[in-house]
């Protein structure tokens, strides 16, 4: 029995088939092969052939993106993330990859879907809304919401005479409105281990979202092979993919289903609605950006499942680094910036290796001229290499500074313990001395002796300075049960100086429980002195709220308050200017002390491990310098040779004028032997060829004239 082999995907079809069963491509002119070859080829051979073909078709842009991904992973390794942080990074990368797959599939069919992020938000919101009923109802509701939004997109794109981008943007705005209006009715917290297992669970150590990504990749490979890689021929790379317009486009339903899966998994990854794993405002553009930075073009002629995998993973690592480094462009701003940059990179994504070589050669010609002077080239390359070495070392120093001084979430770092400072992990454990740069977990109790001092630094950069005879306890650190990181202390007695940082994009709450009242702090500089049943609070900058039985009292900047446990009352007064100036000077001293400690820790780390990087850079710098020096020496020798050849060619002309042809010929042969490719060597070779041709002409004329003389 014979079969038809599809030219697009290599699938075997029946002889009478006109359309491929796998990729739906026409089978006109397909090769006919016996069906026995299909059985003879094992699955491993077929997969190896497809992988080889895919790697051969990968554009150079994706290799550059892969190199950037590896470098960013190196930066993540420098930060030394915990196992939980790595698990969350893998989960977020899986969700972004699924969103990028949905976008890339639509782009490959000649469309565009800008509603995938909003659909994911709506699906996650619907799942959380139905969670009190049943887990199966929540999962089914999220999937149905995604499919319904995909169906709306499919019908709207098919019948509405508007650009597909505008149509899907409108439906995305509708999904976003429904998600925001429904999110206000959701509970702040929920507890369901089975629903959380959908995202946080793992099988053999592999998170479930990563397994879902693997299943999607296998589905594309075995069912929709033409979407595995999509590289248009070079002559068609500037032409957008044309698709016949129909009433309903099923590809939008598929993208809606993928968005529903993303929304349900993201909602299951958190027990609060404001967690990073749940689809948030960043998801409005994140799926599109994940597809584009992976190598997909807006016209759809370049892309595939590989682009979605690379782009989603790359975007997840970028977002992780931006959040860990607390950059102002983290979240939606960095995603919008990446979208703006990736839109203008379509020509680079379509470029082949020959195009890049031609562009590089044109750049060199513009930089050094048509002759490509090697001396200028050597010096320029030397300066470029020196700049690269400086950038590499500066990047390492920057990330080393952050890695050393970074405090992991749910921990506090003890700095500069002075005097008798002890800690107790639990009630049954013995008291132990506090070590410099020791990480303190939740539930740790601290006590300080007379004249002792301890700095506590938290993950958001806030610092608490505890002085004198004090008793202090860390009740909770970065607790996310309310949707906003909350840190609670128990300060029984002593002197406390607090410098709490305030971030607009990531607000945090700090609560200090004293015997007199509970102090709520949200970004301020203050001093709290507690003794007995009274607390004296002086606010230098910001505001502190004292929670009393009769209500909350706010202590603003420049005010001092005395709170009593016996009377349960508060008495506020203005701080004198000289006392306020001394408090500000004390906080300035504390700021200098913190910066000195951070720089000392970074310098020690740089001396311990940075010398390795420095040695590598210096060795590479020395090797490259020797290579550049060698090039310059070769150029000097070549110039000296050219000067000598020009002088020898001038002497040849002098010999010719004196009719010393033998000496002139010897000099010409010597010039050609030294460098036949130089300007003077080419001239000498041309003169020798002309002389040889003249001699052959003279010999031919003499040979013709001899018989004529014999006949006469």
What would your notes on this structure say?
The protein is of the alpha+beta class. It folds into three domains: 42-352, ABC transporter involved in vitamin B12 uptake, BtuC; 373-406 and 591-712; 412-590, Sandwich (Jelly Rolls). It contains 19 helices and 23 strands. The strands form four sheets. The chain has a 16-stranded mixed beta sheet that branches. The relative contact order is 0.07.
Low-confidence sequence ranges: 35-41, 233-246
Total DSSP E strands: 23
Measured between the Cα atoms of the first and last residue, the distance is 89 Å
Q: What fraction, in percent, of the residue positions are helical? A: 40-55%
Total domain modules: 3
Count of alpha and pi helical runs: 19
What is the CATH topology classification name of the largest domain?
A: ABC transporter involved in vitamin B12 uptake, BtuC
Q: CATH class of the largest domain, please? A: Mainly Alpha
Global shape:
flat
CATH architecture of the largest domain: Orthogonal Bundle
Largest sheet: 16 strands, mixed
Beta content comes to 15-25%
Mean pLDDT equals 78
Helix and strand composition category: alpha+beta
Give me the Rg, rounded. 37 Å
What are the salient characteristics of this protein?
19 helices, 712 residues, 3 domains, 23 strands, 16-stranded mixed β-sheet, flat, ABC transporter involved in vitamin B12 uptake, BtuC, 18% strand, alpha+beta, Jelly Rolls, three-stranded antiparallel β-sheet
Question: Briefly, what is this?
Answer:
With 712 residues, the protein is an alpha+beta fold.
Map the helices and strands:
Elements: E1 2-5, E2 12-14, E3 31-34, H1 36-40, H2 43-57, H3 60-79, H4 83-108, H5 116-130, H6 135-159, H7 164-183, H8 193-200, E4 202-203, E5 206-207, H9 208-222, E6 230-231, H10 250-268, H11 286-293, E7 302-303, H12 305-324, H13 332-343, H14 346-350, H15 353-368, H16 374-405, E8 412-418, E9 421-424, E10 432-433, E11 438-440, E12 445-448, E13 453-457, E14 463-479, E15 486-500, E16 509-513, E17 518-521, E18 524-531, E19 534-541, E20 543-548, E21 551-556, E22 559-564, E23 569-574, H17 577-657, H18 661-674, H19 679-711
Parallel strand pairs: 15-16
Antiparallel strand pairs: 1-2, 1-3, 4-5, 6-7, 8-11, 8-13, 9-10, 9-12, 12-14, 13-14, 14-15, 15-18, 16-17, 17-20, 18-19, 19-22, 20-21, 22-23
């Amino acid at each position: 029995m014979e079969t038809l082999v599809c030219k697009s995907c290599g699938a075997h079809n029946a002889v009478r088939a006109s359309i491929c069963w796998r990729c739906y491509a026409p089978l006109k002119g397909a090769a006919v092969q016996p069906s026995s070859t299909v059985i003879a080829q094992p699955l491993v051979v077929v997969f190896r052939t497809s992988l080889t073909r895919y790697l051969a078709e990968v554009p150079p842009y994706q290799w550059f993106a892969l190199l950037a991904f590896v470098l960013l992973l190196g930066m993540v390794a420098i930060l030394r993330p915990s196992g939980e942080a790595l698990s969350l990074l893998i989960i977020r990368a899986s969700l972004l990859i699924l969103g990028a797959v949905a976008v890339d599939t639509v782009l490959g069919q000649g469309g565009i879907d800008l509603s995938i992020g909003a659909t994911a938000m709506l699906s996650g919101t619907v799942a959380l809304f139905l969670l009190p009923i049943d887990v199966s109802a929540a999962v089914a509701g999220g999937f149905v919401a995604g499919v319904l939004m995909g169906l709306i997109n499919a019908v709207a794109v098919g019948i509405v005479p508007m650009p597909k981008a505008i149509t899907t943007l409108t439906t995305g705005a509708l999904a976003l409105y429904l998600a925001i209006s429904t999110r206000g009715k959701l509970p702040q917290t929920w507890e369901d281990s089975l629903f959380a297992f959908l995202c946080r669970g793992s099988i053999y150590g592999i998170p479930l979202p990563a397994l879902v990504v693997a299943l999607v990749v296998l589905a594309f490979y075995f069912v929709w092979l033409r979407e595995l890689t999509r590289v248009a021929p070079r002559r068609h790379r500037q032409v957008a993919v044309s698709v016949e317009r129909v009433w309903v486009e099923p590809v939008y339903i598929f993208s809606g289903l993928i968005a529903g899966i993303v929304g349900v998994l993201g909602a299951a990854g958190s027990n609060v609605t404001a967690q990073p794993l749940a689809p948030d405002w960043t998801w409005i553009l994140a799926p599109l950006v994940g597809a584009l930075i992976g190598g997909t073009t807006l016209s759809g002629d370049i892309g595939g499942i590989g682009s979605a995998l690379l782009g989603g993973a790359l975007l997840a690592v970028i977002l992780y680094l931006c959040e860990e480094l607390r950059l102002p462009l983290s979240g939606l701003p960095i995603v919008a910036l990446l979208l703006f940059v990736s839109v203008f990179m379509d020509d680079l994504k379509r470029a082949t290796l020959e195009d890049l070589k031609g562009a590089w050669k044109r750049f060199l010609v513009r930089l050094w001229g048509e002759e490509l002077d090697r001396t200028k080239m050597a010096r320029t390359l030397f300066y470029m290499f020196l700049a690269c070495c400086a950038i590499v070392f500066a990047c390492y120093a920057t990330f080393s500074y952050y890695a050393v001084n970074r405090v992991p979430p749910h921990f506090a770092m003890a700095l500069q313990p002075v005097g008798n400072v002890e800690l107790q992990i639990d009630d049954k454990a013995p008291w132990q001395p506090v070590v410099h740069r020791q990480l303190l977990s939740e539930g740790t109790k601290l006590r300080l002796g007379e004249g002792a001092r301890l700095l506590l630094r938290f993950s958001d950069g806030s610092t608490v300075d505890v002085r004198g005879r004090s008793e202090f306890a860390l009740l909770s650190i970065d607790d996310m049960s309310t949707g906003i990181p909350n840190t609670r202390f128990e300060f029984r007695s002593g002197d406390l100086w607090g410098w709490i940082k305030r971030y607009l994009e990531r607000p945090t709450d700090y609560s200090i429980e004293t015997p007199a009242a509970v102090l709520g702090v949200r970004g301020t500089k203050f001093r709290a002195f507690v003794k007995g049943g009274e607390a004296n609070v002086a606010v230098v900058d910001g505001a502190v709220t004292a929670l009393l039985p009769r209500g909350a009292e706010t202590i603003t900047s420049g005010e001092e308050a005395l709170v009593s446990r016996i009377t349960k009352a508060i008495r506020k007064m203005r701080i004198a200017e000289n006392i306020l100036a001394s408090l500000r000077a004390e906080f300035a001293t504390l700021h200098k002390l913190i910066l000195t400690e951070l720089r000392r820790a970074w310098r020690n780390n740089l001396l311990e491990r940075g010398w390795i990087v420095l040695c590598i850079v210096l060795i590479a710098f020395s090797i490259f310098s020797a290579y550049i020096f060698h090039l310059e020496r070769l150029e000097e020798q070549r110039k000296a040779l050219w000067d000598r050849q020009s002088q020898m060619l001038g002497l040849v002309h002098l010999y010719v004028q004196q009719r010393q042809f033998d000496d002139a010929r010897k000099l010409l042969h010597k010039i050609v032997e030294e460098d036949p490719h130089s300007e003077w060597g080419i001239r000498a070779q041309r003169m020798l060829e002309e002389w040889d041709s003249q001699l052959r002409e003279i010999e031919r004329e003499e040979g013709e004239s001899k018989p004529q003389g014999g006949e006469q």
